[in-house]
Predict the 3D structure of the following.
Amino acid sequence: MIEPEHCTLIIEKYYNEIFSYCYAKLGYSHHSAEDCTQEVFVVFFSKHERLDETDNIRLWLYRAADNVIKAFVRKAPPPAVSLEDSPEAMNIADSGGFAENGDSPLDLLSSEERQLLELYYNSDYGQRNEAAKRLGLSLPALYRKIHKLKKKLRAAEK
């Protein structure tokens, strides 16, 4: 069993090394690497009683880091799609954008509908549940409203 005092020494010894490993594995994202590194040491503290002094702590920390990184990546929102990968965006770009008269399809929407779209697109996936609650809606209801607004905009586009 590893004593709690020894845990502090282990953290001091390996923190920067594990952080650097997470940093490289997570595409050099400082905040993500910090989160994962902290999670590795939280796991270490929760399981240090099961480890022996003879266990290879460094190897154990790297294995824990791999598991934490895999879990982090699974939970992370999908990466942003570039304009080149979006056929809808390329169609707008190829057609010269919106109509020359300056009318935007968004002009068809009420101010409430515009605010709803703005709130939806300015929030990350994880924040949309909070946004729905602020509007007094469930998350599925928010998605239905957004879907209807998209249909309305597509119909106006034709």
